[in-house]
Amino acid sequence: MNRFLGSSRSQIPESRLPLDHPLFPTLAQRGTPHMQRQDPRSLPFRWKKKSMLPRVLDGWVVVVWAIFRQSAMSGPVYASRTVHSVKLIRARGLAMGQEHVGKGVHVALGPMMNMGRVAAGGRNWEGFGADPFLAGEAAYETILGMQQAGVQACAKHLVDNEQEHKRSTSSSDVDDRTQHEIYTHPFLRSIMAGAASIMCSYNLINGTYACENDKVMNGIVKAEYGFRGYIMSDWAATESTMSAATGLDMTMPGDIDFNSGDSYFGGNLTAFVRNGTIPEARVDDMATRIVAAWYFLRQDAPSFPAVNFDAFRVDDDSVNEHIDVQEDHDKVVREVGAASIVLLKNENDALPLKKPRSLVLIGSDAGPGRAGPNQFSDQGGLDGVLAMGWGSGTANMTYLVTPLDAIQRRARKDHTSVFWFLDDFDLPAAGNVARKKSAAIVFIASDSGEGYITVDGNEGDRKNLTAWHGGDALVEAVAAQNENTIVVIHSVGPLILEPWINHPNVTAVLWAGAPGQEAGNSLTDVLYGDWNPSGRLPYTIAKRIEDYSAQVIPGDGVQDILSIPYDDRLQIDYRHFDANGIEPRFEFGFGLSYTKFDYSKISIKKVHVKGREVDAARQWDQGHASPQVEGGSIASWLHRPLYEVSFNVKNTGRVLGAESPQLYINFPESAGEPPSVLRGFDSVPIGPGETRNVKMTLSRYDLSIWDVNAQGWRRPEGTFGVTVGASSRDKRLEGTIPGSR
């Protein structure tokens, strides 16, 4: 089931470099963010039968990070997680991959798959949502798209990096079952997609740094999951030379500290090999994994573009060639943005807009920043419409279409009078300008990012879950004066909406996330009904911040390692709300449409295979755990379809729409699982009056729990329920797995 390599290793020349070769210290060559290319074909190898590869680990690996000057794909990272169309997720990955390759990039540092355990987590916006299945499938499709274009994907961050506060001096203390079922599952799916590389994180895991954690890197990723690519450190996350022995294959950027000139690898690794502390075979393995990825993506081909940018020297035209990689990716960005918008409320069919006589746009999030879309380094600030969060996962935008831009263009066609007021704080003036308008659209936002940047006291993680710039008060002021107040939310994660969500004059609410540089166009498509909203929430929106299972632990005053206990175990996000009977404001998977859908005729049947099942499959069927073998967790017998769930969805409305049916498993009580667990989703376009048959499959893996004693995947005893519906709580159809009891 692992798409990586296949027979690629047989194509790699057998070679060896002596330990005293001048290239050997380049085990830790610098790579921040642009490394000079050293073509392996030009290295002065000494050929030897039983040694497969040169003993250089990353001296020739080139670009690993890019802030593109000519990129169209900046920003729609968040947006993709509310999209339930796997085709669109893959198309986004392909476009990103094409842009990386066009700039000569060999390794793209993504996708990011942190789980959003903490609703205020700073880097949640880079990931895919607060469910392992959702994150895993989105990562799988993204990696297929990226690597189809020829760039190496780097799945990150391995693992349990769920808050920015003290990320380098905190220990995420996680039990073995939770680690397997929740936090490493997206990496399993990334490996099955053929990810060339994985990045380990800054934090400690159960008291050991992630980048020297033998249990995670060697035990889970390389042994259980059969990963044959390489693991690189996050920048300056390597803590010792011994990390090479515990699974780390590449240290980045090479220095112990940025620009320090020394390294845990390089000469230190040479010494550890010479004195027998680290076996030569391990260094061979490190090099094999790195070079294999290069060959696997055919980056040795003469046609692969040369590096044509340097993010640290953006004004140096000698290296920053004007090579435009945007193509028609603006269409992908716009479609992803529109498909990701979630309609949370729509009273009296306030939306879509129907050629209103007058409109007023209120709030700074409706318009441009005062100094363009890139006025803040690494997007570390909020001025104008929120297109993305901040930090190393951002990109410089070549343009930014604001809601004000796009709505004005549409309004001219409709002969609608447009007014705007972009001040967030003059509440009396905002209310006054909203009076007597056909509709008032209020724009509010909330931002976050990586912890090396602090914005308005938010140290990466958000201080709270309220709208920035007094957004709640702005909504209330406008709603007090206009009976048709529409709220548009651009946010990196959940907000508490209680101050105004039930206000009778708030007729519609659109959750637009962080949609990238086509923000205004994608929003306008939905506002006017050119795109029927089909986005679904990738997390729960609570009524109180205390309702979530975990909060940011600041660790103020902690001098040593901060312990972060994962006491919520399997109960993150909606699982926690369901298990504890907590009523959310909007549940996981929620999203309205401009039409209505009916569900009917559920059918569940076993998928029969030709020939005899392997012994491991028969043992699993009898209640035994999967065997402890290399790659056992990605075995084909474990992941092939075992049951098919079929049902009908009918569009009972008058307009075309895409429904996003979701399949949840209700494990037997003996399993100790949360009440409902997501195991399938899709986006199904259906015309008015049309009925579509939808099929989803369940594998043995989908019906398994991690047995910590047997160290394998086991089917729990008892009856399995199946629920199909429009969200985690909107259950339309129910059934049971045949033969489960």
TrEMBL record:
Residues 659-728 form the Fibronectin type III-like domain. Keywords: Carbohydrate metabolism, Cellulose degradation, Glycoprotein, Glycosidase, Hydrolase, Polysaccharide degradation. Its EC number is 3.2.1.21. Residues 1-41 are annotated as: Disordered. It is an enzyme of class 3 (hydrolase). It comes from the Eukaryota. Residues 1-13 have a biased composition (Polar residues). Pathway: Glycan metabolism; cellulose degradation. Pfam families: Fn3-like (PF14310), Glyco_hydro_3 (PF00933), Glyco_hydro_3_C (PF01915). It catalyses: Hydrolysis of terminal, non-reducing beta-D-glucosyl residues with release of beta-D-glucose. GO terms for molecular function: beta-glucosidase activity. InterPro entries: Cellulose_deg_GH3, Fn3-like, GH, Glyco_hydro_3_C, Glyco_hydro_3_C_sf, Glyco_hydro_3_N, Glyco_hydro_3_N_sf, Ig-like_fold. GO terms for biological process: cellulose catabolic process. Belongs to the glycosyl hydrolase 3 family. This is beta-glucosidase.
